[in-house]
Amino acid sequence: QETISMSKKPEPEAPISEYDVAIIGGGPAGLAAAAYLRRAALRRTVLIAESLGGKVYYPFSLRDLPAVDHVWGGDLCAELEQFVKDELQEIEETMVKRVVSNDGSFRIQLENERELCARTVIVTTGAQSKRTYVSGEKRLWGSGVSFSAVSHASHFEGRAVAVVGNGPRALVAALELAAIASRVFLIAPRVSKFAEMPAASLVLEHPDVTVFRHWELQQIVGDDFVSAIQLVGINGEVRQVPVEGVFIQLELLPNNDIVRDLVDVDESGFIKINQRCETNVEGLFAAGDNTNARAELVPVALGEGAKAALTAWEYLTLHKRS
Fold this sequence. Notes:
By secondary structure, the protein is an alpha/beta fold. The chain has 6 helices and 19 strands. Helix 1 crosses helix 2 (74-87) and helix 1 (28-39) crosses helix 6 (298-318). The longest helix is centred in the last third of the chain and has 21 residues, at 298-318. The termini are far apart.
């Protein structure tokens, strides 16, 4: 007697959509690239991003200082975001799992299990700041705690601030803030290579900078705003230092996992690009804070995104399919 299987037939796979350009990332660089390509009437363009705007939109405030809604360049970013929403027909509100090179084009695997195909790809996935995860860091983020001295140093004129970090980002931030703040405290717990860094002597000799070597940040103290930091020394001693701001200037972590096995990256994992935003892979471009040309400034990311779009458009023009 025959056995009749009652199992369902497998559903057919969704068709693969094909595009000229796929932009991955919805921050300033991705928005600028999408807007530029739309104005260039390149219709077969898709923007893939879980959300638009990146890290541009969040309020930052200090005691006795009105809240600032976004960082420098945010207004233009907001205009581009609205333009892209209104004009770009294809926006995939999801994340990318992987980008695969595929015979002169690219297959893009999405988190929603769809797959797209594009002749060129622009990666604008940005970077994230490494956190300390100490008490008070998350609660006071935007109320004196910042992950970018480039964005918020100007608000600290005449105020005491702390900078946390051992690397070049922290050293540069300390020097930039020393020209603005009343006092800068650099918390550098691990300083084995500190003296070898080009800016180290400038920081150590600066009259307005106090360096806490071999001390670790234990807590960020405050009510609605930052009021102090609590440090612990290698001998267990605890100190509390009054400050109105804390800049977490640890290394940046590029969001490049989706292409890390495809493109060349530097020793820190940032995508290597040339002055035209080209990577070592033909047809694959990158822009913004995920590249070795990062600057942590919205206007720079916007310009790099537009440049990557221009280069991708030129590439498509010179490599027309028959």
